[in-house]
Amino acid sequence: MSSKSRVQLTDVDRKVICELAKSHAGLTHDKLTRLAAQQLGKPDLGRSTVTGTLKQSDKWLKVTTGTASKTVKHRGAQHAKLVQALYAWFGKATARGAATVDRLIVERQRMLPQSRKLTTLRPQMAG
């Protein structure tokens, strides 16, 4: 296991790395990593992180500072269709004034066809 701690980079951090690479085109990835680590204040920044970021530089250079300053992860729900179906049902139920307690939501989830094969979704009910 590596002795380095994991470094979280925001989208804006990745944009800064790409801009540094553009403005210092002659630097090796090792030197660029040290420069970026110093500028971002992230001493544990690794060369492989910088290399991976630069491979997608077109994506990161399009980032606007205001919209993505705190975005770190880019992933959706593990069971997106199930989440969409539950969200639609929940909206209709609350519009009708129906009670939507945890137990009722879990029961509804179990009735949906796409949830029949799920084994990882477990109710988190208190009491």
Describe the overall structure.
By secondary structure, the chain is mainly α. The chain has 6 helices and no strands. It has helices spanning 11-23, 29-40, 47-55, 57-61, 80-95, 102-111. Helix 1 packs across helix 2 (29-40). The radius of gyration is 22 Å and the shape is elongated. The protein starts with 10 loop residues before the first helix and ends in a 16-residue tail after the last helix. 11% of the residues are buried. The model has no long low-confidence stretch (mean pLDDT 80).
Fold blueprint:
Elements: H1 11-23, H2 29-40, H3 47-55, H4 57-61, H5 80-95, H6 102-111
Helix pairs in contact: 1-2
Unreliable runs, pLDDT <50, ≥5 residues?
Answer: none
- Tell me the overall shape: elongated
| Euclidean distance between termini CA atoms | 40 Å
Order of helices and strands: HHHHHH
How many helix segments?
6
Radius of gyration: 22 Å
The structure class reads mainly alpha
Largest sheet data:
none
Mean pLDDT: 80
Helix amount: 40-55%
Number of strands: 0
Strand share of the residues?
under 5%
